[in-house]
Structure formats: C-alpha cells, structure tokens
C-alpha cells in the first residue's frame, strides 16, 4: 500500500541522510479514512447549505450561485496529504540536529512550517498527480553551503512528476546570536555539538518538472 517514506538519492547535489525509513512511514489507509469521514460530513453540510441558499434567494440552480476561487481550489485530499508531509518534514529536521546539522537543539518556527505547507499546495496545484507526484529534497543553508537533510518521496509507489528542493536558512541576525547559548545543554557528559540553531521563517524553493524540459521555477518565500 502507498505510504509516505524517505529514500536517499546520491545523484542529487546534496546527498540524502540515511535514517531508518520505517520510522517515517505514514499510513495511507489512515489518511484515506480521514478523507472519507471528512467528505461524508462535507457533502452533507454543503447540501444543507445550498438548500438554504436556494430557499432564501429564489435561485433555481447551482449555476446561479457565485463561488469564490478558494471554493474551487480547495481539495480535502491534498490538504490532508500536505499536513502529513509537513509533519514528516518537521520530524526529519528534528532528527537531523544529531546528524547532519550537529547542533544541541534546533528551533523550528511554526510560521515556517505553515508557509512550507502553503507553498507545497501552490506548486503541486498544476501537477497531473498533485502532491503525490512530488519528490522533496530538504536542505539547510549554512556557512554558504547547502547541507542535505532528507529526501522524501510523497508516494513511493508513484513515479515522481516533479522535484522540489526546499532550502531552509538559519537565523543569524537580531537578538538570536546573543541568546542562543541559553538553549545549549549544560550537562558535562553531553556530546560536543554546536550551540542551538534556529531556522529562519524565510526559505527558497526550487521546482523542476520531471516530465518536461521546462526551466526551473525558483521562488523566495
């Protein structure tokens, strides 16, 4: 059965980390059950809503109802899948503090994860298989170098249709450099790691279609 998982690919500019993939598998059946429950509730609610609209406005058909653009673009399947992917990205980043990033603590702003989710939905909207066709390379930019953290195949049973490279940045300005040592471990037996790191809310995303020769799409978020 399809499941979200992580797979390394040494052919990419940044080689992926080799964590245990089994710990990052997500249940596709669980996702689909959520969607089924949501759809049944949503269809019932929408039916009641439109009946009320028609009864109070005298409209004869749904063609007379003006729906916003967001009503047409909203897809509960993509929304649920995107939420699972964002959780997996956050998990990969958290685990990378002891390996690829070599820091005592990694602070991940909620705003960053929210923006990543919005960007994933935006870039997957024009793809034939939606977000399921994405191959995501997760990297962190530090000291003018790109450190690979993980590679995520959203649906490993599907041939990827597009590749997304997320380049996250470390916080380096403001008050953070002066207080970051407060988050470092104080135990004398703790391994020697760099001090705590904090991710910036801004990031770069690079999109490459794998089924056409179109140019790369690079967005600063």
TrEMBL record:
Top-level division of the source organism's lineage: Eukaryota
GO molecular function: 14-3-3 protein binding
Entry-linked InterPro entries: RTP801-like, RTP801-like_C_sf
Example GO biological process: negative regulation of TOR signaling
Family matches, as Pfam families: RTP801_C (PF07809)
Keywords: Apoptosis, Cytoplasm, Mitochondrion
Subcellular location(s) per record: Cytoplasm; Mitochondrion
One Gene Ontology term, aspect cellular component: mitochondrion
Keyword Mitochondrion: yes
Keyword flag Cytoplasm: yes
Xref: PANTHER family: DNA DAMAGE-INDUCIBLE TRANSCRIPT 4 PROTEIN (PTHR12478:SF7), DNA-DAMAGE-INDUCIBLE TRANSCRIPT 4 PROTEIN DDIT4 (PTHR12478)
Family the entry assigns: Belongs to the DDIT4 family.
Protein's name according to its UniProt entry: DNA damage-inducible transcript 4 protein
Gene source species: Acipenser ruthenus
């Amino acid at each position: 059965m399809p499941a979200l998982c992580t797979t390394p690919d040494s052919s990419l500019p940044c080689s992926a980390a080799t964590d245990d993939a089994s710990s990052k598998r997500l249940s596709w059946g669980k996702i689909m059950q959520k969607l089924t429950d949501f759809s049944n509730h949503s269809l019932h609610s929408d039916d009641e809503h439109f009946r009320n609209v028609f009864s109070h406005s005298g409209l004869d058909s749904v063609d007379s109802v003006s729906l916003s653009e967001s009503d047409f673009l909203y897809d509960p399947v993509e929304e649920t899948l995107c939420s699972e992917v964002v959780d997996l990205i956050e998990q990969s980043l958290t685990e990378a503090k002891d390996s690829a990033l070599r820091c005592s603590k990694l602070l991940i702003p909620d705003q960053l994860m929210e923006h990543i989710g919005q960007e994933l939905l935006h870039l997957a909207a024009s793809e034939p298989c939606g977000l399921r066709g994405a191959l995501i390379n997760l990297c962190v930019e530090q000291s003018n170098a790109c450190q690979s953290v993980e590679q995520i195949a959203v649906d490993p049973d599907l041939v990827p249709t597009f590749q997304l490279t997320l380049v996250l940045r470390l916080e380096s300005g403001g008050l953070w450099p002066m207080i970051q040592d407060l988050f470092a471990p104080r135990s004398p037996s703790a391994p020697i790691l760099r001090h705590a790191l904090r991710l910036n809310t801004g990031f770069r995303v690079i999109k490459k279609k794998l089924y056409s020769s179109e140019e790369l799409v690079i967005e600063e978020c």
